[in-house]
């Protein structure tokens, strides 16, 4: 990062292992550089963080674009010049940003690519005073060398309390009755509510907010169940909550409260088909993200009386249009994304984000960094295909988990001819962790926060080396990921010793999946994968291939691993496109296919 004009390097800070929040189980190599905030020291091999800002004495400038609690502003003022400018238009934000080293926002400001482009390279940190960073263009931030940090924990209780507030207000028609009395009416019969005690509440997503909602609902005398394929059963047991499957949660709940992140898997998870499987008269609360509900389907379900009431804090588009049928529906209670808006939460969030932004401006590595810092180019070049392999193995393994026991213990095995101290596995471990956590959470995992995040989620990752003979040209021969004490959606992925096991290698620079359970396969990890277990017999590849071909799904790779001829075999099929539900059903309906699973990479 070259110093230009008045911007120059002013201080160099060594990164200490303690700042990385990385496990002390592995020997830590020397500190690494983080491109957005740092550069390599010119005169040594030690990698250092370098704070770049205007002049030795000049304070950096922080633009606070949305209201931030006083305690956070005080912390910032000690270190930086603060410009609190709220309600900026996109153009005004782009104009101001070229004069700022850091920007702090909540969910109301869109930090677009144009913002990063307009900053002329001066913007070093974006602080999101809250959890969701869907309003920040992360790819653009990373491309522009700008670190993004968030405040993931300080508003948990506020969001949970808002969920309970909506639940109780909905059950007793508080908002509707209030409006009616203020309109001069006295409609006591119209606003008879329903009781909560003894009713079943299904908490969908048993993470930070979901578990706090569950705890509070228990106090209201509700029978609380939760669906979260990745939550530890003992955490649920500890507060008297049964973890159940998705179907059971839908079918048995009188109330459903949504607390999962918005991911590819949860987008529109409540839709026409899932509403049809709910108890007639179910009531729904959403303080997570609007996109987890198909809003048009919800209007249909409300009109049909399938859903009796809904209470919503979040919407697919915010603010929703004034004539939104959903917002205007008489059985719907709405709030304008107020989940995090308590005095206490906003003070907490303000302190959390101010500390993260100041730390980042000082060149410290933040545990809540959400975009990936770079590792030294020479390490990255060699490890790059293995980094991709590691993340994809993590993603595959976690998607194979079924049942409700939660992922707690993961063993990673690296087979290498390199001497142990000649192979830094931190990046690989971080990428496996990223692959394991990101598909099931709203958390962003990178080299900085991987071990911290795993620990916080009760995920224990152990590493083991197999030292191979032979040429140490390539850093690794294979990587194996095993998840213990879980069931699998695909029973053949369970190894003889009872863990979900996937193994991969890099071939000609391309990561390949080479083992699933005890079955050897060979499929390149590009696109997505269908795994089928079948009885080994002629014609199977052709039958599956032609179903995919007829549905215009391009097959990139196909491989069959079998224990013995004509016995059970596992077929791994790499596909470029996502097959439709109907296509997958056709594959599942082939009589000799005993089980199959579609995995997104
Ligand atoms: N309305 C607000 O103001 C407000 C405030 C805070 C958080 N939120 C939102 O609430 C949600 C939860 O936040 P959190 O801090 O508890 O996150 P978290 O990561 O702690 O918890 C999310 C949980 O969802 C689970 N999950 C993932 N995929 C799932 C699936 N398909 N089905 C069921 N569970 C699944 C994960 O295992 C995890 O336990 C996020 O969407 C967040 O953006 C909203
Ligand atoms: O993601 C979050 O933290 C919540 O949705 C709160 O968003 P807010 O900071 O805009 O209230």
TrEMBL record:
Pathway: Amino-acid biosynthesis; L-serine biosynthesis; L-serine from 3-phospho-D-glycerate: step 1/3. The keyword Protein biosynthesis does not apply. This is D-3-phosphoglycerate dehydrogenase. Belongs to the D-isomer specific 2-hydroxyacid dehydrogenase family. The keyword Plastid applies. It is found in: Plastid, Chloroplast. The gene is LOC116205323. One of its GO terms (cellular component) is chloroplast stroma. The lineage of its organism: Eukaryota, Viridiplantae, Streptophyta, Embryophyta, Tracheophyta.
């Amino acid at each position: 990062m070259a110093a230009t004009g008045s911007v120059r390097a002013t201080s160099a800070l060594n990164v200490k292992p303690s700042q990385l929040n990385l496990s002390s189980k592995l020997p830590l190599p020397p500190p690494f550089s983080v491109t957005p905030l740092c550069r390599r020291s010119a005169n040594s091999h030690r990698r250092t963080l370098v704070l770049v800002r205007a002049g030795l004495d000049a304070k950096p400038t922080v633009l606070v674009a949305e209201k931030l609690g006083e305690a956070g502003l005080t912390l910032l003022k000690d270190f930086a010049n603060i410009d609190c400018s709220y309600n900026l238009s996109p153009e005004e934000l782009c104009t101001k940003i070229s004069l700022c080293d850091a920007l702090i926002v909540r969910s109301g400001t869109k930090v677009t690519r144009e913002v990063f482009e307009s900053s002329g390279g001066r913007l070093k940190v974006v602080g999101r005073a809250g959890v969701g960073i869907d309003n920040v263009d992360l790819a653009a931030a990373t491309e522009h060398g700008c670190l993004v940090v968030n405040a993931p924990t300080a508003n948990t209780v506020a969001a949970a309390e808002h969920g309970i507030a909506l639940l109780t207000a909905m059950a007793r028609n508080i908002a509707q009755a209030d409006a009616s009395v203020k309109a001069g009416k006295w409609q006591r019969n119209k606003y008879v509510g329903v009781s909560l005690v003894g009713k079943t509440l299904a908490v969908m997503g048993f993470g930070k907010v979901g578990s706090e909602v569950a705890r509070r609902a228990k106090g209201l005398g509700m029978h609380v169940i939760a669906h979260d394929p990745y939550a530890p059963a003992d955490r649920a047991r500890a507060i008297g909550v049964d973890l159940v499957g998705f179907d059971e949660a839908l079918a048995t709940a009188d109330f459903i409260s949504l607390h999962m992140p918005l991911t590819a898997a949860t987008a529109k998870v409540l839709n026409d088909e899932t509403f049809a499987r709910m108890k007639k008269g179910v009531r729904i609360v959403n303080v997570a993200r609007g996109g987890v509900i198909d809003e048009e389907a919800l209007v249909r379900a409300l009109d049909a009386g399938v859903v009796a009431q809904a209470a919503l804090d979040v919407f697919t588009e915010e603010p929703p249009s004034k004539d939104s049928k959903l917002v205007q529906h008489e059985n719907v209670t709405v709030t304008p994304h107020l989940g995090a808006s308590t005095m206490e939460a906003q003070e907490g969030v303000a302190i959390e984000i101010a500390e993260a932004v100041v730390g980042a401006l000082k060149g410290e590595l933040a545990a809540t960094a959400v975009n990936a810092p770079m590792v030294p180019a020479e390490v990255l070049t060699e490890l790059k295909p293995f980094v991709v392999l590691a993340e994809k193995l993590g993603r595959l393994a976690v998607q194979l988990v079924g049942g409700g026991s939660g992922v707690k213990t993961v063993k990673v095995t690296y087979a290498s001819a390199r001497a142990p101290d000649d192979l830094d596995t931190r990046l690989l471990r971080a990428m496996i962790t990223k692959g394991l956590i990101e598909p099931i959470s709203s958390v962003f995992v990178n080299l900085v926060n991987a071990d911290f995040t795993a620990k916080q989620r009760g995920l224990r990752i152990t590493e083991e080396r197999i030292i191979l003979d032979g040429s140490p040209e390539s850093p690794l021969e294979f990587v194996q990921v095993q998840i213990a004490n879980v069931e699998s959606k695909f029973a053949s992925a369970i190894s003889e010793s009872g863990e979900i096991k996937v193994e991969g290698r890099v071939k000609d620079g391309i990561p390949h999946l080479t083992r699933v359970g005890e079955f050897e396969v060979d499929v390149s990890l590009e696109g997505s994968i269908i795994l089928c277990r079948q009885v080994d017999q002629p014609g199977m590849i052709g039958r599956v291939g032609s179903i995919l071909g007829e549905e215009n799904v391009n097959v990139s790779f196909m491989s069959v691993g079998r224990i013995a001829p004509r016995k059970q075999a596992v077929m791994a099929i790499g596909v470029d496109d996502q097959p439709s539900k109907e296509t997958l059903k056709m594959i599942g309906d082939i009589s000799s296919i005993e089980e199959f699973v579609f995995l997104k990479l």
